[in-house]
Design brief:
By secondary structure, the chain is of the alpha/beta class. The chain contains 22 helices and 28 strands. The structure holds 1-deoxynojirimycin. The site of 1-deoxynojirimycin (NOJ) has 6 residues, from loops.
């Protein structure tokens, strides 16, 4: 019987390494200690050649710093480069302490999986554990032993470009995914008995709340919602044993996180039990000056180190000022010693003192299994948003007009934050259609930058499109946003897709063409017009190395789409923030909370997604409708596949606390389970929901489950109607 995932609880424990760490710490000079808390970015290796390594290093160069023990970690990839750097650290520095090699491995390393917001649409933590295991192995083989991932910032404002990197709006889904990813990254290498890489979750904390979706901007939120929702994925990553956390750039509730002892120490360590080390985000220690909470760099270093930032990423501030701070004041000396202990513990936990050098495994890189997994995950990440009159699946024997620059752009298929992918042979929708011998003609349809086509060019190109469409049996219109519109520093004030694309679609519809639109994007977009005009609409996201093949699999019926939205798709940008777990209003939202010029409803709700099958919910039973706060609610749901093809259904459960001492959401996700159904079959799905998921956060930040009456909603998405009462005693 399919059941659901559960959260685990086994934070990283540094205590087994304590004696070795202490022994080493006692041998270290202050300068060497400061070296350990310094992360250098040496990603551009122009000039770091054999010849350079062989010659006496210039003072201040990376080799010089490594030899002097002034570097604890570097941002760098490349098996040979990292091996050479490690050799210098291990063989030529006084104490031979190995380096950490950190890198951004956000959705795969060489094999690229869909963007994380896309893979969250699988609602399948176990497959994401696998993707990260593959990513970890590829990264390890490329000289990396620490990943700046998973990115798990909860986000309910898709104007923020980095929404692409996270798992969407819901704390439970994001927490389960966070745990799976941490476990996947920290998979143990059977050759060494130690994890391939350390996972560094980010960006702690509240970064996804940046006001107006403007990257790096300040965030303000009440502490109840912060703790109840936004903090949950970080706490989950801690529980899964993540060895590292990255602090975020932003101001949160009146404090710069990089300077916040409250968030970095009291909450992260003392409350969540984090035992690893915290690295700052890039340059953010020095940015305390721009925030005007530090007067100079020494001040910035003192604030960050005492707040709980153990390692300074790339600003050089610790390197330049911590030695003096150490000597100035025992408070700083203690903080620096503690930071060094945490970093060394992780180095021991990774087995770097025994196995400082990664092994190169060419068979890990873009292996047939990882490519197959990328295709499977891309298929499972695709969300079928519309399928009017059974437009999909398309008939493979017919001829199609494949339309759109996005259908022929590798970079845009891959998505944001894929730093090492271009060396791989991946294919676009056009490439996949060629390889699959589909009958089609291609037209670029629109430029990514609308201004490139003046009115005349637009008219002549559209005419060409229309006459090509006349020769075909249908149109596959690949539309949406380029990858550069999401990711870091890529906020968007609008959420509509470019007007030229809608205009083209309108023209095709005016001529009566049947159009299947494939939407590529890195955020929740306000795609109302595309959705109204298209006969079918498949949300593909930016879906990685095997994205093109996966799109073909979905639209031509080689798989039955099963993705579900991990974030609400708004009707209009002005509705932001909009999500499924809004608190109740005293007056019905549909009537009083609506906009004068827009519905209060989203375009597509959280959890939404169609398939080619009709699924019927035959009923649900709660086995223990009265339970205690430390019990588990046991629910059984019968679902039926009324179609003649197999389907995967994600059964979702939401709850409402009927009467509570503080306001609570109208409904909120509390469990889900995926079930595979053969054609014309029924299955009983078990949902085991720990009562702790029905908790609320009191004004004084106690997470408690109150006794009383609750309502459980079960079904296909967050608007599901089937409801059952239960009571917590
Ligand atoms: C800044 C980004 O915010 C962070 O996510 C990334 O890991 C670092 N740069 C290093 O590339």
């Amino acid at each position: 019987m399919p059941t659901q995932n559960h959260l685990i609880k086994a934070p990283f424990d540094p205590s087994p390494y304590a004696d070795m760490v202490e022994e080493l710490l006692n041998k270290m000079t202050v300068a060497e200690k400061v070296g350990q808390i310094n992360l250098e970015c040496v990603d551009d290796f122009e000039g770091l050649t054999e010849w350079n390594l062989g010659s006496p290093a210039e003072e201040g160069s990376i080799m010089d710093k490594l030899r002097r023990g002034c570097v604890g970690a570097v941002i760098c990839r490349g098996f040979e480069k990292n091996t050479k750097l490690q050799q210098i650290a291990v063989k030529e520095s006084r104490l031979g302490i190995p380096l950490l090699f950190g890198y951004d491995v956000i959705h795969g390393h060489r094999t690229i999986f869909p963007i994380p917001l896309g893979t969250a649409s699988t609602w399948d933590p176990s497959i994401l554990e696998k993707t990260e295991e593959f990513a970890a192995k590829e990264a390890y083989s490329d000289g990396i032993n620490w990943v700046f991932a998973p990115m798990i910032d909860l986000c309910r404002d898709p104007r923020w470009g980095r929404v692409a990197e996270g798992a969407g709006e819901d704390p439970l889904l994001a927490s389960l995914i966070a745990q799976a990813k941490v476990k996947g990254f920290q998979t143990v290498n059977p050759d060494t008995g130690y994890p391939y890489v350390a996972a560094g979750f980010k960006h702690y904390c509240g970064y996804g709340l940046s006001e107006g979706g403007r990257d790096y901007d300040a965030c303000s939120i009440n502490e109840q919602t912060l703790m109840m929702d936004y903090m949950k994925p970080y706490a989950a990553a801690v529980d899964a044993g993540a060895m590292n956390a990255m602090s975020s750039f932003n101001v949160l509730n009146g404090e710069v996180v990089t300077a916040s002892r409250y968030y970095l120490t009291e909450i992260l360590r003392e409350k969540f039990g984090f035992g690893g080390f915290v690295v700052s985000d890039y340059g953010s220690v020095a940015e305390l000056i721009e925030h005007r909470v530090a007067g100079d760099l020494k001040d910035a270093a003192s604030i960050a180190i005492t707040a709980g930032v153990d390692m300074d990423m790339a600003s050089g501030t610790y390197l330049d000022h911590c030695e003096a701070l150490y000597k100035d004041d025992s408070r700083f000396a203690e903080a620096i010693d503690e930071a060094v202990r945490r970093i060394l513990s992780v180095k021991f936990a990774l087995g770097l003192f025994e196995h400082p050098y990664n092994e190169e495994h060419p068979e890990f890189t873009a292996s047939s299994e990882s490519i197959e997994l990328a295709r499977e995950v891309a298929r499972k990440s695709a969300v079928l948003l519309e399928n009017k009159n059974g437009t999909l699946p398309l008939d493979k024997s017919k001829k199609y007009l494949l339309l759109g620059q996005l259908a022929d752009s590798l970079r845009n298929m891959i998505g944001t934050w894929a730093l090492c992918s271009p060396e791989l042979p991946h294919h676009t929708v056009k490439g996949a259609m060629e390889e699959g011998n589909y009958s089609f003609v291609y037209h670029v349809g629109y430029p990514m930058d609308e201004s490139e086509w003046d009115a005349d060019l637009r008219a002549s190109q559209f005419d060409e499109v229309l006459s090509l469409a006349d020769e075909c049996d249908g149109v596959i219109f690949v539309c949406g946003e380029p990858e550069s519109w999401s990711g870091e520093c890529s906020g968007s004030a609008t959420l509509e897709i470019p007007g030229i694309q809608t205009e083209l679609l309108r023209k095709l519809k005016e001529k009566g063409h049947r159009v299947t639109s494939v939407l590529m994007c890195g955020r929740a977009v306000a795609c109302r017009e595309i959705s109204e005009l298209s006969d079918a609409l498949l949300l593909a996201w930016h879906n990685g190395s095997e994205g093109g093949a996966a799109v073909c699999d979905c639209i031509f019926g080689d798989c039955n789409p099963s993705g579900r939205l991990p974030i609400t798709f708004p009707y209009h940008v002005g509705q932001i923030p909009i999500h499924h777990a809004l608190l109740s209003s005293g007056r019905p939202r549909e009537r009083y909370g609506r906009y004068r010029n827009c519905t209060a409803e989203p375009l597509y709700p959280f959890g939404y997604g169609l398939s080619y099958s009709e699924i019927r919910y035959n009923g649900a039973v709660i086995d223990n409708p009265t339970l205690s706060a430390d019990d588990t609610l046991r629910v059984r749901v019968e679902i039926e596949n009324l179609s003649d093809i197999p389907v995967c259904e994600t059964v979702q459960a939401y709850f409402k606390d009927n009467v509570s001492s503080v306001p609570t959401p109208e409904r909120k996700l509390c469990g889900f389970a995926k079930a595979e159904l053969a054609p014309h079959s029924k299955v009983e799905v078990a949902l085991l929901i720990p009562a702790s998921r029905f908790a609320l956060m009191t004004r004084d930040l106690r997470e408690i489950v109150e006794s009383g009456e609750f309502t459980l909603f079960i079904g296909h998405d967050s608007t599901c109607k089937l409801s059952l009462p239960f009571t917590i005693e």
